[in-house]
Amino acid sequence: MATTPAPFLSLLTTTPIYIPLFASLLLIAAFALFRPRRSKASSTPPRSVSPSPADKKPLLPVQRRNSLVSLLSNVIPGARRSPPATPSAEVPVTNRTPAEIAAYGNFPDYATLSGVPLPKAYPELDIAKALPRPYRPFRWAYHQTMSFKKMEPDWWLELENTYIARIAQRKALHALHGPKILQSLPGSESATKELMEMCLQFYCSRYPQYFSLTPSSSPTVFTNRILGKEFILSEYPPLEILLNNVPEDFAITLRNPQTGDYEFRAGVICSSLGWNVETKIGMNLRQIHDPIPDYKEKMSMSMDRFFTKMPTSAPIQRGSWGLEYLQPLYMPPNDPHMEHRSIQNPDLELKDVFIRVDWQTLRRLPLSGAIVFNFKAIFTPLEEVRDEPGVPAVILEVLEKGKKSLMDYKSTWHVEHVAKPALRSWKEEQVEKGLVEGDWQVETLKDYPLFDGWEEKWHRRQGF
């Protein structure tokens, strides 16, 4: 039985007058599609620290197709078109071959490839005085979520005055513990190189007074003026370059093409508590987070979906926190420092109680499709929050009313006999001084994960 053509097609096939009209429309459409376009401003970020101008084979990620237009617009003005795809339109690519990735060469323009701009230069930073931003990721009412926020591109990797000491500490930990600190499984080679290059590009763009890449040399040389060293990059595995220069931890997860799960395949981690690289390498997300209360019931499925869809242009940040006796950076299973968590020492002094914030970012790499956890431990004396509006009250509320399983996981009990009375006193003091309204209902601060007046205090402590 013959099908009836759609009304518009029926007009075209039965009414001769519409045939030349249809042909004219086709000509107009073709002219509009293929005519030369007037040049527009390029969407390519203004800064590039790629160490070589060598041509790169244009095997761009599918989710950043328009990046090709941006890259070409520097050479072919008529090729400029629409801006890069929005995150909702991106489709993550995770099956690119090592050969396809290698075709980009060394240090391609990751800002354009990912959609995340290079950071603005920060020449005011003095490494002898620099402090991390005072993150206070305390929440109330407390609900077990990942509490993500959009990552600020300028603050992906922060420098602080502990840089030299922390690099030395991390190298010593690696020398002592080896694969418990640093490992990479087969198949992660492209991702580790990509991550290393992105970190060095960031450093050179953000802190040009301290770091540079020599573009014309072969092999490429990375100069670290804080340490007074030069690194010929081809002589070191990528994760060792990070260990020697970037005092932050990285865990690289890659999608298993058979199961679809994201698995921990490579990392350099020097600040873990109760675990290490060796105990987690090769695990998927559910296995890695198994010890976390309520993860399986409340977060596992949503995290799996999030990883599947996460675009390269939308990195995120979050923070977790705890209270510690002194400043334990690396505490693997059965570490002697663990014994302090089982007692409440009656001689414990307030000056020895620290807030530990693990500030974390999560981003997808544009070529390998890997998703990278990046985190660093920041220690702050508990006494530091005394004049920070609302902060003592929120911490106290969590300690006194937090869900038992979550508080057991945080392991704050060993210092609470000293911390709680101090926090209670500071909470009352802030009301008396007018820093907090007397009838204020304790809740997550409006400036979360910071606090009201943080920037002035932060600048003052650095001598600005």
Automatic annotation (TrEMBL):
What keywords were assigned to this record? Membrane, Transmembrane, Transmembrane helix
- List compositional bias (Low complexity) regions by residue number: 42-53
Q: Where are the transmembrane segments?
A: 17-34
The UniProt entry, under InterPro entries, shows: HODM_asu-like (IPR021848)
Q: Where is this region: Disordered?
A: 39-59
Name of the featured protein: Uncharacterized protein
To which species is this protein native? Pyronema omphalodes (strain CBS 100304) (Pyronema confluens)
